[in-house]
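Journal club prep — side note

Before the paper discussion, L.F. wants everyone to see what a predicted structure for a comparable chain looks like in token form. Sequence:
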Amino acid sequence: MNRQAENIAGTTDTGLRRVVAIVALLNLAYFGLEFVVALAIGSVSLFADSADFFEDAAVNFLIFMALAWTAARRARVGMALAGILLLPAVAFVWALWSKFNAPLPPAPMPLTITGLGALVVNLCCAFLLARYRRHSGSLTKAAFLSARNDAYANIAIIGAGLVTAVHASVWPDVVVGLGIASMNVDAAAEVWSAARSERQAHS
């Protein structure tokens, strides 16, 4: 029975490593695209979301590496990932400062289309990670929370683009960017709490 359980766990780890590798590559690819568009149209929300894609790529890459480690070491990595989850909030502050210096609304059509593409990517990632979200504790929780939050954020970006098309204002973009930053702060707190509990359990 123990051997069977070990075989099942090993198969699960192999499947998870494959999934997080795919998710990492998807996030890295869309980070580049979204970052270029954000710079081109001056979008705070897309800039924050592109930083979020980069953070997701880093999180999933670290999960890929850490799955071969012990539970205690995974917990320590989970606590480090909590810090990585704060990167989009830092990026948003920088982008927001730049927006106040040049308060022009972003082009609504590229904003909406890029947000829609980001939604598709994040829904695919969330779907891939869903079956593993309770496996390996804080590590996969970090990845699943990121994908879930990003999908919500992308819906908001699409909405901001539609509103900006009707009312040319910087505020829909800024408000959505603030929401993206706050969601990642909340996710960081959840992951930190889960990782701390795991570390105490294996100390």
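L.F.'s comment for the group: Residues 108 and 143 are 30 Å apart (CA to CA). Keep this in mind when we get to the figures.
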